[in-house]
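Supplementary Text 2. Reproducibility record for the structural model of the 448-residue chain.

All settings were left at their defaults, and a single model was retained for analysis rather than an ensemble. We include the record here because the model underlies the residue-level annotations in Supplementary Table 4.
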Amino acid sequence: MYDEAICAIATAYGVGSISIIRCSGENVLSLVNKVFKGRDLTKVKPNTIHYGYIHENGEVLDEVLVSVFHGPKSFTGENSCEINCHGGIYNTNRVLEALLSHGFRLAQPGEFSKRAFLNGRIDLTQAESIMDIISSSNELALKASVNSLRKNTTKLIESMREKLLSLIASIEVNIDYPEYDDAIVMTEEIILPAIIELKAEMNNVLEHSKIAVMAVHGVKTAIVGRPNVGKSSLLNMMLDEEKAIVTDIAGTTRDVIEGSLTLGNVTLNLIDTAGIRHTTDEVERIGIERSKKALEKAELVLLVLDGSKPLENDDYELLELTKNKNRIIVVNKSDLKQNLSLDEKYLTISAKNKFGLKELESELLKITKINNFNVSDNNYLSNTRHIAKVKEALSSLESAIFACNNHYDVDMIEIDIKNAWNLLGDIIGQNSSDLLLDELFSKFCLGK
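Retained model, structure tokens:
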């Protein structure tokens, strides 16, 4: 528990019906008492709400309701309270200033959640899921984040760690009591099969996590095509706003333009790229290079062709460049006479007249397969940091398998297994450094 009392505005900045100032710390109630005119907050029962006024130098600043919580049964695990003010910017700031002048310190971003973690109220995956809930852009993302908040991610990681720990224990016994098991038997009959099984389990989790990440964080979608086929018009049609400049001049888009779009349970992180073609214009050439880099990173490609013209060399090059990508071929300008011939499956639209959007949305849902994602499966990770750690742990297991196959000493094999165990521990915060925690929680909202 911290002696230092912190406070911050927990609601969004702006005018509303209510704004909330969150306070936490061992002596928080006695400090709030200095500016609160009402019942003595140090003597009231926990989990109760009390009416009164915030005052400073004899002046009433606001009429408030104060919610009181006692540690360890509070969000932070400390004594805490929430001051419900009227939702004005000026009066809320004046209440905050009154608290700061009577012993409080302004909380850093994510400091309330950080204290909850350090006080054992939540683990690291639960803390991160709080921010995922706040940033959820569709129903699947919200449900996946709530799943993690309810410790389902923690249970998945702990299950794998327990299997590794059991293996480590067997090795330790063999090292301490070499007569317990022959080294060859230990390696080939106990360690190797267990590692192979765990490797398969981790690979299965990572495979399930691909769709989970797209459901929570959106699908990186690149809109590509040669100049003037209607890429920017398509982006504007999908976003239903004039995000990109549209002209009849080829090469108008010189850089990538981004936007976000939610279709049912699918969020698309759209990138409108510069038209890809051979050019001597240096500025356009730089834009094209950026487009190609965006294409490499894309999880989904919308390849736009001009239906009013026959295919050109640049079109053929793009068809070849994107053939191994998850793509939808979109033939634009259906409002004009059609002169394009293409054997592959494609969708016909008119971005100018906003025709074909429903069919495009339907195809997007089908090709991303996100509607097949089962949130209650619990055999997936949706946080990119967690996935990166599992991949590192998997790499350590592969090193251990190599060591087993080459008949290394068991104590050498144990190093890789312990490393995998520690890496999984990093996910739930079992051995996280102060630097990592500061970095993670600094991304949280102020007051969270």
